[in-house]
TrEMBL record:
Organism taxonomic ancestry: Eukaryota, Fungi, Dikarya, Ascomycota, Pezizomycotina
Protein name as annotated: Protein farnesyltransferase subunit beta
Matches recorded under CDD domains: FTase
Chemical reaction(s) catalysed: L-cysteinyl-[protein] + (2E,6E)-farnesyl diphosphate = S-(2E,6E)-farnesyl-L-cysteinyl-[protein] + diphosphate
A GO CC term attached to the entry: protein farnesyltransferase complex
Cofactor(s) listed in the protein's UniProt record: Zn(2+)
Species this chain originates from: Cordyceps militaris (strain CM01) (Caterpillar fungus)
Domain Prenyltransferase alpha-alpha toroid residues, every copy: 100-451
Subunit organization: Heterodimer of an alpha and a beta subunit.
Superkingdom of this protein's organism: Eukaryota
Bound cofactor: record note: Binds 1 zinc ion per subunit.
Amino acid sequence: MSFRTRRNKTQPRVLFRHQIKAMAAAAESLPARSPSHHDMPPGNASDAGIPGLFTSQPPIIDALETESSQLQQETIDECLPFLSGEEHAGKCNQHGIPRLDKQRHVKFLQKQLGRLPPQMTAADPSRPWFFYWSLAALALLGEDVSAYRERLVETVRPVQNPGGGFGGGFGQDSHLATTYATVLALMLVGGEEAYDVIDRHAMWEWLCSLKQADGGFQMVVGGEEDVRGAYCASVLISVLGIPLEMSPDSLAYAAGHKSLFSGLGEWVGRCQTYEGGVAAVPGIEAHGAYAFCALGCLSILDAPHRSIPKYMNMPRLIAWLSSRQYAPEGGFSGRTNKLVDGCYSHWVGGCWPLIQAALSGPSSGEARSADQQAADTGSLFSRDGLIRYILCCCQDQTLRGGLRDKPSKYSDAYHTCYVLSGLSSAQHKWTLKVARPAGSAGGADEWEAMPYIEDEQIFNEDDRIGITHPIYVIPQHKVEAAWEYYGSKTTE
């Protein structure tokens, strides 16, 4: 990972000035809206250096009110006091941004890895997710999670089934979601003991049984088939170095699939909707989490600048993803006409590094077109808008700590993990440095991360967090350590 020298600027830069003027001019012809008690007091925005786009009611208001528009307005009214600095008096920097309370969030996450109260018994099938969410978030906050290795190995060993994969708890069927979470948790703590607990041969046989005749993957034997399965299976195959050859006993083999990745890109491509987003399965509503799963899967099948344009309509996909970011909130929604939610800081925000790589291609190793070189500059989303939403609205400032989806909600491990992942993506720029040879599956491209410095930095440098791989959502060196270890294994 390389870093460039940051530019020193003493004066805050007001962003989106041309957009604000254009929107305000257009708004003059629309009915006036009664002022809200949550509107920003005059002068506060300029005093704090906060762009007006993120501190005031939208200058254009649709005169037709619906249930969706009313919920959206309620969300704006809920977020504005936090975005304008009213709820963080005396705690903000010159840009109106509160600090990231790292130590409080670390304590919150450590508590999630301890003994949970009896009412959490109903969440027993989700235990692997608690491990992954908490460990991944702690790693982003700079904590050494290897101390949890022994406890994690002892906990997950009994939930690995002889037929391959991990269940949520002891005696539960293996499921791709819980297997994905368990394997990534083991990669996070690292070490031979963690790597060796995984029965890779049984995992291969189980994955072959999940492969479907249409190219996709079921989440559990006999269960649902969706884009989550495509992504989770691809990550497991790539990280663990699972052989791609299909078992002759598999029903998918009889349908003509000789590789675990055979037909997978085509199946994922059929999940793109008329809106441009990606659905769980072909023919239903697009969703931000499925967009990330689709792009992550395709970026494992081949380098993103080859695979994503091959299977996705890029202009429609970019238009749909761009429409997910709202102002004044600055966060992302997961679906059309839905509210912002902190977790989409990752699910939608995490799509942008992969989209950027698909547009610009590798920075070295291949001849690049003028369009690819032009795509290197700028940002495809408002990083400052997302950072503002996360640091202002998503932090739980109570003694509880952690992060949440918006101000009125409670923090939890899920949102803490994915909000921090989104913050990392907004604070850094990922570049596809060197792409693997064409036609090589497995995801072993060379990526590089550095601080994003194209615009004025609105957060304090102490609030910068670690990086997480744009495909695997664990630190890059954790992925590389797993590749090195499993690559050295010639037999199982």
